[in-house]
Write a structure and sequence with these properties.
By secondary structure, this protein is α/β, with parallel strands linked by helices. The chain is built from 8 helices and 9 strands. It has a 9-stranded mixed β-sheet, covered by helices on one side. Strand 1 (10-14), helix 1 (41-54) and strand 2 form a beta-alpha-beta unit. Helix 1 (41-54) packs parallel to helix 2 (72-81) and helix 2 (72-81) runs parallel beside helix 3.
C-alpha cells in the first residue's frame, strides 16, 4: 500500500516552537525564543475533530516543549473525548499540577529524552541547568502515578554515557528505552540544507505532522516538504491530495524499497516497515519485541 493510498492513523501535533531547553541537536530548532505560531487553540480543536472524523487513532503532542503551551490540557481532553489515543513528548522539566491530573484522567502516555545518567552531561546537552534533576524526578513521579512512559537516549557527543543513561531509566522502572543517533535536521544540520535522503523513507505512510503555523509535513523531520496547510483547507483534503502525492513520489524516488530498518527512535514512535505501530503499542521492532529495554549504539 502506497503512502497516498494509506489511512492517516497517526499525527504529530507540534503545538509550539517554544522550549525552555536549547539542545544543539534539536531537529525542530526550538528554544526559549520560539513561539506558539499562528495556530490558535480553536484551530487545534478543529483539527483534532477532523482527525477523529477521518478515523485517526493516535496523536502525539510535541514542540518545542508542549507543556509550555497554555491550552495543552484542553487539547488533550478534547482528543480523549473524541476517542484518540494521546501521547505527550516532553522534556519533563515543567509539568504543572493541572497537567498531571489531565494525564491521569485521559490515559495519556508520556515520552521523554534522556542524555546521561549524570546531571552535568545531561545539562550540557540541554543547555538548561538543573534539567537532569527535574526530568529524572518527574520520570519517577509519572511512574509512581501509573502513567505509562517511554524514554529515548540520543547519541549527541563522542564518549556520551548513552548506555549508562539507558540503564538508569531502566533501573527507575521505564519499560521501553529506545535509542537514536543525531539526525541532520534543524540545528543539528549546522546550516546544511535538509534532503530526502536523510529521511528514513517511511514518511507520510499512515502518518503526518502538523506544525504551529498549520503546515502539514510527511513527518516531524520532513518539515521542508510541505504538503498543505490546515488553516487553508481541512486535513482530509490535504491527505491524499495532489501535493501529498508529489511529496510521496519524491520520497519514493530517493528511497524506493531501500527504507531504513525498523527501530524505536525516541521521537518517531511508529515508523517502521512492519506495521507501522502507534504509541499505544510502544515497541515496534519485531526483532527486539521480547526485550524489556533496548538502546541503540551511538552512530
Amino acid at each position: 500500500m502506497s503512502a497516498v493510498d494509506s489511512r492517516l492513523l497517526f499525527a504529530w501535533l507540534e503545538v509550539t516552537g517554544l522550549c525552555n531547553e536549547f539542545c544543539d541537536h534539536c531537529y525542530a530548532d526550538s528554544g526559549p525564543k520560539g513561539t506558539h505560531g499562528t495556530m490558535t487553540a480553536q484551530d487545534w480543536l478543529i483539527l483534532i475533530d477532523q482527525l477523529a472524523d477521518m478515523g485517526t487513532l493516535d496523536v502525539q503532542f510535541i514542540g518545542g516543549e508542549p507543556t509550555l503551551y497554555p491550552s495543552l490540557p484542553a487539547l488533550i481532553k478534547h482528543a480523549h473525548e473524541r476517542g484518540l489515543g494521546v501521547e505527550v513528548f516532553s522534556n519533563m522539566t515543567h509539568i504543572r499540577t493541572e497537567l498531571w491530573d489531565v494525564f491521569g484522567e485521559c490515559g495519556v502516555k508520556l515520552a521523554t529524552s534522556y542524555y546521561s545518567d549524570t546531571a552535568e552531561e545531561h545539562d550540557q546537552v540541554t543547555q538548561l541547568r538543573g534539567s537532569h534533576n527535574k526530568t529524572r524526578a518527574n520520570v519517577q513521579k509519572a511512574l509512581a502515578l501509573g502513567i505509562p512512559l517511554r524514554g529515548g537516549v540520543v547519541a549527541v557527543r563522542d564518549g556520551q554515557r548513552v548506555q549508562e543513561a539507558a540503564q538508569d531509566l531502566t533501573a527507575l522502572g521505564v519499560g521501553t528505552v529506545g535509542g537514536d543517533r543525531t539526525r541532520a535536521f534543524g540545528r543539528a544540520s549546522q546550516g546544511a540544507a535538509p534532503t530526502i535522503a536523510d529521511l528514513c523513507g517511511h514518511c507520510a505512510h499512515e502518518k503526518c505532522a502538523i506544525g504551529p503555523t498549520g503546515d502539514v509535513w510527511p513527518c516531524v523531520l520532513g518539515r521542508f516538504l510541505i504538503m498543505g496547510n490546515v488553516l487553508e483547507k481541512p486535513i482530509s483534503d490535504i491527505w491524499g491530495g495532489s501535493r501529498m502525492l508529489d511529496v510521496a513520489e519524491d520520497i519514493a524516488a530517493v528511497h524506493g524499497d531501500d527504507v531504513q530498518s525498523c527501530t524505536p527512535p525516541q521521537f518517531l514512535p511508529m515508523c517502521g516497515p512492519c506495521g507501522p505501530c502507534v504509541p499505544s503499542v510502544g515497541h515496534c521492532d519485531p526483532r527486539e519485541v521480547d526485550s524489556a529495554a533496548t538502546i541503540a549504539s551511538p552512530a
